[in-house]
Specification:
2 helices; alpha+beta; single chain; FtrD-like; 10 strands; Putative membrane protein DUF2318; Rieske Iron-sulfur Protein
Length: 145
């Protein structure tokens, strides 16, 4: 029994270490021709998907989430108030929750409401197949990170 517990503990530790790479839950995106593109099929569910892009030597983090209205929304994983804590947001159902203060924000309001502890909006364009975000728009969030 001890060997089984030890083996499971080692296995769990390996999974934890593997999942805690440079950015943990964030997938890295690389810019091409001044934009990053994310296939809409990658964000076809209503779960938040987290990304980062290295711009000017700084990793800028954001998330995409499809609202219940079907629109893909984008926001920096930070807000105007809590960003110094560098905790970002997590998702609970159809709301994003600030990991610092606990305030909740409806996913359908991402990109529409800004300021305070709302997730800071990130401009994006969607053509139904790809979500396209300009590096210059991502760069505007560098102050948060």
């Amino acid at each position: 029994m001890r060997k089984l517990i030890l083996a499971l503990s080692v296995l769990m530790l390996a999974f934890i270490i593997a999942g805690c790479g440079k950015q943990g839950r964030y997938a890295e995106l690389k810019a091409q021709n001044g934009v990053v593109t994310i296939p809409e099929s990658e964000v076809s569910d209503t779960n938040a998907h987290y990304y980062y892009v290295n711009v000017d030597g700084k990793d800028i983090k954001f998330f995409l989430v499809r609202g219940s209205d079907g629109e893909v929304r984008a926001a920096f994983d930070a807000c105007d108030v809590c960003y110094p804590e560098k905790k970002g947001y997590n998702q609970e159902g159809n709301v994003m929750v600030c990991n610092n203060c606990g305030q909740k924000f409806a996913t359908d309001r991402i990109n529409e409401v800004k300021g305070g502890c709302n997730p800071s909006p990130l401009n994006r364009v969607s053509d139904g197949k790809q979500v396209v975000i300009k590096i210059d728009d991502i760069r505007t969030g560098s102050m948060y990170f």
